[in-house]
Specification:
Layout (H helix, E strand, L loop, with lengths): L3 H16 L5 H11 L3 H15 L6 H9 L17 H4 L5 H4 L2
Helix pairs in contact: 1-3, 2-3
């Protein structure tokens, strides 16, 4: 569980990441430390990175993916049904998606 001060600091850093503003290496390490141990922080980091990559694109599908947290952490990751196994493609997804 995160303390209020830690949560606020992490969310402030993630907001700057999503806006494309400068974030120091120490701040990235700080966020990644919590993201590796806390699923919520990991989800927030993925969303911030996805928003930064898709800045300017305001399509309903992107908004849906952001809301469901189904976006990939890898910016170059795409699903190809001819070459990829759907089960393997969702290995990095949250537990609630893998169980469905």
């Amino acid at each position: 569980m995160l303390s209020t001060t830690v949560r606020i600091r992490i969310q402030e850093i993630l907001h700057r990441i999503s806006m494309g503003d400068g974030v120091s290496l120490q701040e990235r390490i700080y966020v990644n430390k919590y993201a590796s141990r806390n699923q919520n922080v990991s989800s927030w980091l993925r969303k911030a990175s996805h928003i930064q990559r898709n800045k300017g694109k305001c399509e309903p599908v992107d908004e849906l993916l952001n809301g469901l947290d189904l976006c990939s952490s890898d910016p170059l990751s795409t699903y190809n049904p001819d070459q990829d196994d759907l089960g393997e493609w969702f290995t990095g997804a949250p537990a609630w998606v893998r169980k469905s």
